[in-house]
User: What shape does this take?
Amino acid sequence: MSEFLLDRERTARIGFGEAVYCAGKSPEQIAAILQTVGEAPLLLTRLDPARLAALPAGLRDRLDYAPMSRTAWSGTPALLLPGRRVAVVTAGTSDLPVAREAARTLRFSGHDAAEIADVGVAGLWRLLRRVEELRGYAVVIVVAGMDAALPSVGAGLVPGVVGGVPTSVGYGGAAGGRAGLDAMLASCAPGLSVVNIDNGYGAACAALRVLGLAG
Assistant: This one.
């Protein structure tokens, strides 16, 4: 692969830059992309440790890599903006990899998200004691597997934009996240937005669009 049609104008057009989805790409393809962008900032998602290890040392050492989220960036991320306007909430600690993908995407674009873990509705008191805190955020990204009830409950309690992210966490009936996705799509909580299964990156991009419009 000798040429990549990178979307270099995306930041000017929609407010945040392109990301490279590494799953399905060979280490050689990823290395060629990194060489193409040079020192320009670039976010990499779904970069597993095996592909990272297979990159040339000079390129690998340029990356800021977070193994739980399987994200990395090269170059310098956006300057951190003051204050915290986004919270990333998980029902359980098993949902953290997807939540961290969202948080890392936001950080790359200059937003330091608050991370609130393990407040699933199986122990409702854990959520209720954080409600007043959550009401202070413009956007709340809620990451949940199994029956994924937390986004619906959260959307009924806080005034900000609530984005639900179903995860593939759960036993057989959870169907790899499909049960949670269907539950969120059928939610009776008005205004709940939903992205695809395990798509922390997509939820973060939706949050960036909201924050961009809010100014």
About this structure: The mean pLDDT is 93. The domain at 86-214 is CATH 3.40.50.1970 (Rossmann fold). The first helix runs from residue 10 to 14.
